[in-house]
Amino acid sequence: MTLKPGLYVVSTPIGNLSDITLRAIETLKNSDSIFCEDTRVSGKLLAKHHIKASLSVYNDKSDEITRKYIIKNIESGKVISLISDAGTPLISDPGYKLVGELKEKGFFVDVIPGVSSPIAALTISGLPSDRFIFAGFLPKTDSGREMVFTELMDLNATLIFFDSPLRILASLQVALKVFGNRQANISRELTKLFQESRTANLSTLLEYYKNNPPRGEIVLLISGKKIISITEEETSKEIKDLLISGVRAKDVTEILFQKYHKYYSKREIYKICNFLKSEK
Prior knowledge:
CATH superfamily of the largest domain: Tetrapyrrole methylase, N-terminal domain
Mean pLDDT: 92
Largest sheet: 5 strands, parallel
Distance between the termini: 75 Å
Helix content: 40-55%
Oligomer: single chain
CATH topology of the largest domain: Cobalt-precorrin-4 Transmethylase, domain 1
Shape: elongated
Strand content: 15-25%
CATH architecture of the largest domain: 3-Layer(aba) Sandwich
């Protein structure tokens, strides 16, 4: 296999080391150097598939000096591959600065596609897959998570996030507050022995994982805002009738949330209530 000098962005398995394409194996075998996040992790993959190319580190801490070193090697006619610990490089992993600089300078960059955990999770979740948004790792704080969820809450697309097993309960609680009780999925340990893909509404998932603390890497999926048959005008009329009858905005919110929790969060309903009150 003869490869053109340049950078090859190569997808690797997300768990099961057999989930790698024939083209990826051949590319790695014919690389002069392979850059990875952790040589200990990638070393196991290379050993299994009898790949003997040299391993070097390119991770979040790599700087311009490392990128210049890689570019210099490509300039001298070398074939360089970039891999991550698991899955497709650059998807919430380091590498985009390197690819961007190489493209800007006119060097050859190719992709060897393969496994990606967001797509794998979406495929088996049972949630709508015709429109989706991958939003990367969730912030570590409740306020940060709430900000991200609020930004995406009105989109009619399945939302996909990475999260930690240590923070998933907090994330589910904030998601329930912002989105209402939408359908969601938690996929973890994908392609591994203890793979799990669990789909239910957010409150059910929250209760389940309170009693069954999860382990391993987690992909969280949340269904998008649905276009429902009831119109905004009809919803507003229902709210207005309740307000006119003397029901407090807070109580109207609770009543309508019980009825439309699959489609509206409490915040959305309360916002409509206050708007209608101001029109009086």
